[in-house]
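Q: what does this look like with pyridoxal-5'-phosphate bound?
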Amino acid sequence: MKDRGYYGPFGGAFLPEILVATFDELDARFREIKNDPEFWRSYVSLMSSYSCRPTPLTFAENLTRYFGGAKIYIKREDLNHTGAHKANNVMGQGLLVRKMGKKRVIAETGAGQHGVATATMAAKFGFDCTIYMGEVDVIRQRPNVFWMEQLGATVVPVTDGTRILKDAINEAFRDWVTNMDSTHYVLGTACGPHPFPEMVSYFQSVIGKEARKQIMDIEGRLPDKVFACVGGGSNAMGLFSGFSDDPVELVGVEAGGKGVDSGFHASRLCSDDASPGIAQGYKTYFLQDDDGQMKETHSISAGLDYVGVSPILAQMHDQGKARFEYATDDEVVAALKLTMQKEGIIPALESAHAFARAFKEAPAMSKDEIIIINQSGRGDKDIFTVADAFNDPKWKDFIVSKAGEYQND
Ligand SMILES: *Cc1c(COP(=O)(O)O)cnc(C)c1O
């Protein structure tokens, strides 16, 4: 176990002594299922009846015509149950938990999407479920907290520290140390101590497997470039893994926020604000100051707003196996508007980062070149943020009148 889970200098498992045995067991059980083709079949079967696998690969003919360059295809992870690729990871871990005989799951969540996905999985499998969330996020993300509670989860507001995601992660680890025998910690992205980066990437690899087969069926050839947004890196790992042995350019797009020189962004691989370090049990590029204090992050999309990044992507970055770019908040809002109006598709703000970058590159490509954009999720969840960004007056009237109704209660 000691040497496992390293990607060049990145990754590893830096754990309190008390958790080592739990991680060893998790790693051993994960090895078993990874070597068992029957497990993969049961996973795909579950995802095809409970979620929407295989998700379609949509030819974006209007956007293609509009830009006049490469053919644009969209991998539709938004059509998953609960509206994003997160379902792939939580359902895969759910099957594993059932095999391990545990009855309780815990998770951390920032924006609430991973919390909702985990609470959904727990309801389906009949597990007890506790979700840790910074108190600030509980207030900001009330709609997701509402759904987690309705789905049967207990949501615990964390009042330590700055009361956001990193504090929730610490609290979830504290819970796990106390309840290792009964409980599994459902980590939400391809980060954290080994085996999580590998395990989450494994479940998400269904995206790339399908996309490769689909483009070969439709076009009879590989794409030239594929684009995915990068928060922790799980949807990008999922898509990239399908093309890692192919002559396909892999492009990861980070949150450029107000610009990578502004101090208001979440770009770890395209800015000068990040450096390698060890935190939260693993080594990667973190947005940190010279003393190792984590920096504040900013993005219009809550799901890309994270200080670390997958150690697997960190290595691919250093080795030049993937190219990393960023999209700013303004570029993202413009790409979202264009995609809605040209294709009738509403990407999540996270996914719209990949769209924004692809839209910059597609026009300069030739008409017989092909790109695939991963639409990691659907945008309905972003209605508050997007309506604000569009400054929609009728939406404001609606919010004010709704608030008025409660005041008169
Ligand atoms: C959570 C989320 C992301 C970011 O997570 P990754 O692990 O980087 O994929 C991206 N898109 C959507 C829609 C999300 O919900």
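Residues 109 and 115 are 5 Å apart (CA to CA). Residues 52-83+205-388 form a domain with the Rossmann fold fold (CATH 3.40.50.1100).
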